[in-house]
Amino acid sequence: MSCLSGSRFVLCLCLIPTAPVACLPATAQVVVSTNFEDGQTDGWIPRDTGTTLAVSANQANSGTQSLLTTGRTQTFGGPSIDLSSALTQGQLYIFTIYVRMAEGEANDSVKMTMQSTINSSNTFNTVSGPTTVTNGSWVKMVGTFTPASNATSLLLYIEGASATSSYYVDDFTVAVSNGGCSNPPDNSGFVSDFENGTPQGWVGRGSAQVANVTADTHSGGHSLSATMGPVASG
Ligand SMILES: [Ca+2]
User: Fold this and answer.
1) pTM of this prediction exceeds 0.70
2) Which of 23, 138, 176, 195 has a C-alpha 20 to 30 A away from that of 208?
3) Residue 231 above 60 pLDDT?
4) 142 CA distance to ligand 1 centroid (A)?
């Protein structure tokens, strides 16, 4: 069938306009990413004395390598990364990392913590956890944090409740977040199928006239006919 014939046409499709977007869905742009596949520690440094960091091929969440932390002597010790120049004050970020205890290690309770230096003093915020981590699988840790407007240094680190536990980390990312929708919009839209025999709210604009008809349909037994003006007879 033809949907357009001379000056008269038939709306032959269900019309599904897009609902207005009330807010943007949560999205994220990655600004820091370390996966240790280049064999380098990718900016990660020991946070306390005695701690040793080494790229290892024993375990990997992605690829073939991860970062192994051994020799810890303090609960607040562990791998850390300086994000002072990578992050913007006042911006909400999403932090993600995968953690796995080293072979033979007991379960530990692991946290992702941000150390912010503000007015020459350090403040500490838990970004994610505490989360129970085992030596049998990788555990994904995710959290959000917004650097303070007066923070002059930002050091993120991964700490265990045990002062001496050893663990792997892999696939660390920091992503900019737009905050997402606190009240997700209704994207169900609306549908006009004309199956109830009425124009369902559609009206002719200008001199056009609309009518519910059964002569041509795309689905069901009804469609909307729109007459744009006088139609020549014969
Ligand atoms: Ca990796």
Assistant:
1) no
2) 195
3) no
4) 17
